[in-house]
Amino acid sequence: MLTNSIKFKNFNQPNRFEKKLKQILQNLLSNQDEIIKSLGKTYSNNYNIKKLKKFIGGSDIRLIGIGGSSLGAQSIYKFLGDRVKKKFSFFDNLNPKQKYNKNKATNLIISKSGNTLETISNANILINKNDKNIFLTENKSSYLFNLAQKLKAEIIHHNNFIGGRYSVLSEVGMLPAELMGFKANQFRRLNFLIKNKKFVNSLIQNVSNTLHLIKNKKYNSIILNYDKQSSDLFFWYQQLIAESLGKKSKGILPIISNMPKDNHSLMQLYLDGFKNSFYTFFFVNESLSPKINNKMLLKTHSYLNNKTLHHIKKSQFEATMKVFKKKNIPFRSFSLKKRSEESLGELFIFFILETILLGRALKVNPYDQPAVELIKTETKKFLINS
Question: What is the pTM of this model?
Answer without folding.
Answer: 0.95
